Every structure is written in C-alpha cells, then in structure tokens.
Amino acid sequence: MGFRALILALCMVLTVVVTACGTDTSEVGDSPEPIPTPIPEPEPPPGSPGAPGSLNEPRANHTTTLMPDGTVLAVAGSRVDRELDSVESYDPQTGLWTLVSRLGAAREGHTATLLPDGRVVVAGGAFKVRALSSVEMYDPSSDSWTDAAPMNEARFEHTATLLPDGRILATGGVDLLTATAGAEIYDPVSDTWSPAGNLSDARSEHTATLLSDGRVVVAGGVRGPYTLSSVDVYDPATGAWSSAPSMTTARSEHTATLLSDGRLLIIGGQDKGAAHDSTEILDPLAMSWTPGANMNRLRAGHQATILEDGRVLITGGGSVSPDSLVEIYDPALDEWSRTARMLTPRIDHRASLLPDGTVLAVGGRASLVSPLAFTELYIPGAGSWSPTALVRDPRWGQVALSLADGSPMIIGGLNNDGWSLKSAEYYDAESRRWSFAGEMQYGRWGHAAAKLPDGRVVVVGGADSLGRFHASAEILDVEERTWNTLPGMSSARVRHTLTALDNGSAIVVGGWDGVKTLAGVEILDAAADRWSPASPMSEARWGHTATLLADGRILVGGGVGIEDRSLASVEIYDPTTGRWTSTGTMSEARDGHTATLLTDGRVLVIGGVGESGESLASAEIFDPATGLWASTESMDRPRAKHTATLLRDGRVMVVGGATDGTTPLASVEQFDPGTNHWTSGGTIKEARWGHSTVLLADGQALVVGGYGFATLRSAEIYKPAGGGWHAGDSLARGDFQPTGLRGRTG
Length: 746
Hints:
Blueprint lengths: L2 H18 L16 E2 L24 E4 L5 E4 L11 E5 L4 E5 L10 E4 L5 E4 L2 E2 L2 E2 L3 E5 L4 E5 L10 E4 L5 E4 L2 E2 L2 E2 L2 E6 L4 E7 L8 E4 L5 E4 L2 E2 L2 E2 L3 E5 L4 E5 L10 E4 L5 E4 L2 E2 L2 E2 L3 E5 L4 E5 L7 E7 L5 E7 L7 E5 L4 E5 L10 E4 L5 E4 L12 E5 L4 E5 L10 E4 L5 E4 L9 E8 L4 E12 L3 E4 L5 E4 L12 E5 L4 E5 L10 E4 L4 E5 L11 E5 L4 E5 L10 E4 L5 E4 L11 E6 L4 E7 L8 E4 L5 E4 L12 E5 L4 E5 L10 E4 L5 E4 L2 E2 L3 E10 L4 E12 L3 E4 L5 E4 L10 E5 L4 E3 L9 E2 L9
Antiparallel strand pairs: 1-67, 2-3, 3-4, 4-5, 6-7, 7-10, 8-9, 10-11, 12-13, 13-16, 14-15, 16-17, 18-19, 19-22, 20-21, 22-23, 24-25, 25-28, 26-27, 28-29, 30-31, 31-32, 32-33, 34-35, 35-36, 36-66, 37-65, 38-39, 39-40, 40-41, 42-43, 43-44, 44-45, 46-47, 47-48, 48-49, 50-51, 51-52, 52-53, 54-55, ...
C-alpha cells in the first residue's frame, strides 16, 4: 500500500469515527478508540556476520567447540522435556546456524574435545538421568559420526582435557547419584581408554585446566552434599597425581581460566546453593593461592572467556536467577569493570572466542527451566546499548531534535491507539528523566520541525486524528516551555520537510495535502512571522529528504511522486538565487530513506522503500563538489523508516527500521565513510521503526519511541566506547500493529 493510500485509509477510518460522533470536533482524547489489527508474530529474522541468528533448537547443558575453520559446533544438550541428539554448526561468515548430522545417542552433561586432526570426541553425558559411557567421534570433513571405544566408567558432569601429546584425560563426574574419583585417558590413535589413577576426592561439577607446562589442575567440585576446595594435579610425563594446596573457598560450578602469564584464575561458583563473588589465583610455579578482586555479582554456572588482550569476560550465571550483567577482569590491575549487559540473562550456556576476537554466547536458560535458542555476539570496541527512562507518552512517527542546550526533544506523533499527540517531551541526560514541554494547539503526525538559529523550535503542518490536514504552524518558547501560534502556510501538508537556514528563516518543501502531491515551497521569516512563496520543485514529492549542505544549499532527494511511486530524482535549492536545479538521479528510487551530511560535506543516502514496495539495503553517496552520485556497500539488512545518525568519529549509525513493510528490526549497523564499509553496531533491546535518534552532547546517542509490535515508551542509549552485544533475532515480540499500516508508511 502506498502512503497516499494509507492516508486515505486512515482518513476513511477517522471519518467513520467522526460520523459516529456527529459533527463534534472535540479533542481527540474524547473520541472513540480504533482497535489495533492482530497480526501473526513474524519468524525470527536471519543472522549476519555481526548479528548471529538463533539456534534451530533451543538447548542447555550442551557443548560448543571452536573448529579449525572458525565455525562453532554445538552438540546435544537438553530441552525442558528431553535430551537432544541434534548438532548444529555456526558459520561466523554468515551468522547462521545449520543442522548437521545427529549423534547416535542423545545426551546432556557430556564433554566435547577437539583433536589435533580436527575431529571432535564426545564422551559420556546423561540420558534420562542415566550416566553414559558411550563415546562418539565427529568428522567435519564427511559430516559423520562414528562410535569410538566406550569409557571404562559411565559419567556425566565430568571434564575432558586435551593433553599435549593428543590424548584426552577424563576426570570425575557422576554415575547415577555417586561421584567418581576415577580418571582415564583416551588414545585416539589406538581408540582405547586406559585407567589414569584416582583423584584425591570423588567429584563432579569441577574444573580441569591444562597448564603451560603440560600438567592438569583439577579444582573444586561437589561430592554428594559436600562442596570441595581440594586441588589435584596430574603430570602426563609421569602418569601420576599429586595433591596441591586447597583453594581458600570450597566451590563448584565455577570457572578456571589460564591467564596469559601462566597463572590460573578461579572465578565464582557456589557452595550448598550459595553463589560466590570471590576469585582466587593459583601460581603454578609456587603452587600457592592468592585472593583476587571480587566480582560485582554473585554467580555460578557462568562462562569465562579470555579475550585477545588477555582480559577475561564473564557472562551469565547467577545466584537466585540467571543474570545478564557482564564483567571483565583485568589481570594486570586485578580489577573488574562492567561492560554491556547481554541481551538476555542466561545460565548453563556456552561462550566461545571466535578467530576475529568476538565472543559467541550460545543457548543456556534465561529462567530456571526453559532453554534458549537465542544467540548473541560480543564485539569488543563496538559500543553498547542500555535502557534509560521511559517517555511519558508512548509514540511513534514523532519529530526529534536537539535544543540549544543539547537536550533532545520529541514532538507529536501517534500513540498506540492511532491518535495524534499534542505533547512534546525533552530529555535531561543528567537526571535521565523526561519532562513535558507544554502542549501544541493541535495533535500532529506527518509534521515537520526545525530548530532556528535563535534556539526556538518551529513545528509546521501535519495531520490530527480527526483527518484534518494542517497548514498551521507553532513556535516553542524554549525557556517558558510554551507554544505560540504562528501564521499558517498557504497549503496544508503532511510528510513535507522543514529546513532551518542560517539567516533565521525556514523553508518548507513538498508534502501531500490529502488530495495531491505537492511541489510547492514556502519560506518562513521567523523574525517577521511571515510566510512567502518560493519557486516550486520541478517534481512534486512527499516522504523525501532535505539536507542542508555545507555551502547553504538544500539537497532534496527521493520521496513519492504524483503516481504514488518512489522517486530517484534529486533537486538542489539555492536560497541565494531562489532557484532549483536538477542534480541527476540516485541509482534506486526510494522513499522512507535517510540522508546524512558527512563530515567531508558529502551526503550518505540509506535504505528506504523501492519502486515495488520492498525495503532497500542499498546506500549511495552524493558529492556536492562534482554533483555526482556513487553507490557504496549495501547494509546487511534492508530497511526503511530507520534513523541514521552522524557520530562524533564520523561514522553513521543506522538504527532499527522496518523490513517487509512493518516487521521491525532491532539490528544496528554503522557505516565508515573512510572505508565505505558497514559493521554491526549492536542490537537494541526492542525492535522498532518510526522512532527517533538524537546525538547527545557527550557523544552518546538516544533512541526513543517508535513502533515494535505496539507503540513504545522505551528509550535506549548507545555508548560508543566499550563492547556490546549483537543478535540477528530480537527478544521483542507482540501481537498488534497500528490499524492500516500494512504497506508503505511514514
């Protein structure tokens, strides 16, 4: 459906409402409320290299193995009602999971060990509470599983450690309800298991870590009702076990990470159900323990991943319930710092360091029962997203700008019932609060607003909920937070643009008046409170963009023309001569796109809706110096009704938008004009389109409102520094969309 058809449809609905109410033109709050139209929940969007897709099957208590080719193999695990035999492979080049050959036997609580030749040995585990001794071997070259020699003891919640000579050391675990002290070694050359002595204590839920000198340190765990602090060391050169000093704290479900300097870091865990925040560090040369700094959270069942820079990333786990807080340990400083939260809390998940330095978090449980298919990727240095205060009025289709003091302001828009809003709100970054800035005379959507050089804010045009198209204009006294009426334009219009000029005037271009597409242009002299006509464009349009160039000219591109089709044409208005000139055409016709002025004076045009109504992934750049357009790399996801914001470092951040009409996106992409390359910018918590993004004075960015599967009150802040979590799927789901919004929309 084109936007004109959408407007007509909305007007027809509103006309019926007005007719049903007689001729009363009372405020919109007194009018009947239209009922949102139910729509089916969409399928999860596919993944991408910077935003992984979900597993084909949710799972916890599984294993993940980084393969020699950089893929990740997720094996078995459990759902709520059963153990799994399914196996999936994650390709970082595509961000997608693919089902591969199944195991011969379903299992959870097993181990998976990568051999030097690239095969994977899966040993033990449990099926229907019964421990397994069976072993299977995966050959990625043939995508096939073969049975290997079984272990001498059935066991699950054990460890399996690859020794320097290519053999595998299995220790501890549980057989039914009884922990075992037994250890055995698998030789893949002879396909045999051999006894390897006994630990000092039977145990499960322990750790086993290969030291730099080839020895293996087994620490902690649980034996029946007892949590252990004891430590054993296995020397493959002698085949003997020896006791080492005990940890200062008994713990199970902890992690043990070999640091780059050869020390062993023990983190968290639990004792009789009470989670720890403590850490301790083993010096393998002195065989002595020293306390490390405490975490910010109590946690067990977490994952610890050593990053490329030697720091340790801690994800998930928890105390009473799964946690999403993420912490990073710096061994050089013995300090913890927080980074972006995961997009969902999880426990009993797996985390893998990928070859590019990112960390993939897979599966686990977000509650105490249900496993996750949701996958997310941590990218160091990509920035992070966090929620901030809710707006007072949920809204989408609002206009946003920065006031003279840097405070973001949102104006008008539609609420969840489809009624246009009179309210405006501004955000205080210090207090992280939204406040009302008075009410306009009319509720407005499809309007335009601009900040004048003197700091005042002008709002023009738009439509209200009763189907009235406005020529009216209002101006905000920022100090008093009150709106004052200005003389109206000569033509009512929606989906036009308003651009403030350096001389204090503002120019309105194009739009739609409810009957026809407009080419007309009007100029507001804000000092004299007077409108005057200007030369019209050569082509009528609405839903276009208008970008103030560095030399003071205005670049107007795309939009929807008189035949309700997207346009590729571009025109430039010169305020000094009052004339329009054509400047060629874009490579693709588009509306609902964005146009961003880059630091070097060029203009980046992104996405939008194409001629056939499809969302676009393409991007192109206009160079005012040459008057030429050049295509650049496309985004990963096609999108329209997104936002594009110039960051302080010169990159352009694209947030959300809609694909396939009204399916909202949570993904964020960033364009580097220096390299002409797109990278992931993380994932917002709630997918949305028709929202606003405003750059804050400190360089962070505020995303607010919009439409997900309902009109949103939520706001999120992007912090460019630090790492962030990315996902191709969104956790935001809902059941409704606004009435009539199934085609091209504002």
